[in-house]
Amino acid sequence: MIMGQSTPTKTATFRRTSPNPCSGYLRPLTKDFADAQYAVAITMISHLADDKDDSELEVMLKSTAFQWLNMAALQDHVAAQFCLGLYHMGGFNLVGFPQDTDKAIQLIFKTAQLGLIPAQLLVASFPTKADDFDFPFSVPVTASTVVKWLSDAAIEGWMTAEFSLGEMYDKGTLGASECPIKALGWYLKAAEHGCAEAQSKVAQFYEEGRGVLANRDKAIEWYRKAAKGE
């Protein structure tokens, strides 16, 4: 195929003479291409999220990223809905974007219910009824649901979930009884995956002899790993 030659497709026609060099490539994204819309939005966000520039161009680009994300979310793209929730919560620190906490939580909770693990882990970090707190937003979640989400994520090797389960058995939260042995088991898994906080917990357990025989050498080994971020 010769560069610049018109190429008929089902979704768009790419022409070298397009007034906007990018318009031909973006045109197919305007309808029923949720994956592509999401990819474009995330690519833009990854370059803009840490940019504090509030110039007219930057604001326009950030607004465009939101539009792509919203377009994908309206087509029930679960990851896009989750990111849109973060967008509304202000998670990307984008200048000039109106935050809407209620809408953010609704989207995040919806994607958690649909099985998106990052959303489940985020919701799991909110206070639950088992903690004697009123749920801070408009969507309730039970302790048993949180435990199931954490367990499912931990089985798949999610470090955050492993550490959270360690804390659950360590402190006796989410309806669980305190169990140093189970707590250490989950802390170890998270520690082996590189979680510095879990490594410090493992060191403390070895130092204090909680859930395991006290072992000063092991404690020092884990403290060193935590300090080095290994």
UniProtKB/TrEMBL annotation:
Source species, domain of life: Eukaryota
Cited InterPro entries: Sel1-like (IPR006597), Sel1_AlgK (IPR050767), TPR-like_helical_dom_sf (IPR011990)
Gene3D superfamilies on file: Tetratricopeptide repeat domain
Annotated PANTHER family: ERAD-ASSOCIATED E3 UBIQUITIN-PROTEIN LIGASE COMPONENT HRD3, SEL-1-LIKE PROTEIN
Family membership: Belongs to the sel-1 family.
Name assigned to this protein: HCP-like protein
Species classification: Eukaryota, Fungi, Fungi incertae sedis, Mucoromycota, Mortierellomycotina
